[in-house]
Amino acid sequence: MSNEYDNEVFFTQYAAMSRSRNGLSAAGEWHQLKPLFPPLAGKRVLDLGCGYGWHCKFSEEQGASRILGIDLSEKMIAEARKRNAGPGIEYQVCGIGEYEYPADAWDCVVSNLALHYVEDLEEVFRKVYRTLKGDGVFLFNIEHPVFTSAGGQDWIYGEDGQPRHWPVDRYFLPGRRETHFLGCDVLKYHHTLTQILMGVLRSGFALEAVEEAMPPEEMMDIPGMKDELRRPMMLLVKARAVK
């Protein structure tokens, strides 16, 4: 898994984003992701790629008894410990691929905008299934395949500088995609919709919800937000571990 988030230039740009400064209320997908969370009172929650720890703090506020947030970035973990600490929250510098995933250890595993940095997605799904207790919930948000396929992750612009359309290319050729994001070259991985959803099912999960993120009406005044209705950027999936 690549780690641009410890690059000083990248991290500085990331810290300036609205969702970094204002947390979940500034995340366009939160109004859809929040209702998908199961009841967390007394539960154990693992956050894969926790970033600033917003979902860890939310889990604590919902009454979770133990929360572990892992992230490959030392800078992200340092920020999480500063912004979203709590008596039931632990943060650990660890990649999604390197975590040990102990059997039957967690009631809920959440991952927000981190799995598109993972090459072997189905391996992670199998590990998450192993570490969840029976009937446990896996809730993740990944960049949508329409968003990741071409690699450039930007609009095709007209002569007037306005976005004309979003390119979709090499859709059925999954794998590495090199894009430019927040002033840095960033490595991501494209996975088709079939790979994502069938990978979840093959790993033993039952799908409970699949949603494509749409920003809410109250965010439409934010510059560029109306264009987010022209193509999906994120895919939200809720699955239950059937054991």
Brief description of this entry?
With 243 residues, the protein is an alpha/beta fold. The chain has helices at 8-15, 18-22, 30-33, 54-61, 74-83, 121-131, 145-148, 193-202, and strands spanning 44-48, 66-71, 89-93, 106-112, 132-143, 156-157, 163-165, 175-181, 184-190, 205-212, 234-241.
Structure description:
With 243 residues, the chain is an alpha/beta fold. The protein is built from eight helices and eleven strands. A seven-stranded mixed sheet has the order 3-2-1-4-5-11-10, with helices on both faces. The protein has a two-stranded antiparallel sheet with strand order 6-7. The chain has a two-stranded antiparallel ribbon with strand order 8-9. Strand 6 and strand 7 form a beta hairpin. Helix 6 runs parallel beside helix 8. The two termini are 29 Å apart. The model has no long low-confidence stretch (mean pLDDT 92).
How many beta-strand segments? Answer: 11
Strand order, main sheet: write it out: 3-2-1-4-5-11-10
- Report the helical percentage: 10-25%
What's the total helix number?
8
Strand fraction: 25-35%
Query: Which geometry do the CA atoms define?
Result: globular
Gap from first CA to last CA: 29 Å
Mean pLDDT: 92
Structure classification: alpha/beta
- In N-to-C order, the SSE pattern is HHHEHEHEEHEHEEEEHEE
Topology, please?
Blueprint: H1 8-15, H2 18-22, H3 30-33, E1 44-48, H4 54-61, E2 66-71, H5 74-83, E3 89-93, E4 106-112, H6 121-131, E5 132-143, H7 145-148, E6 156-157, E7 163-165, E8 175-181, E9 184-190, H8 193-202, E10 205-212, E11 234-241
Parallel strand pairs: 1-2, 1-4, 2-3, 4-5
Antiparallel strand pairs: 5-11, 6-7, 8-9, 10-11
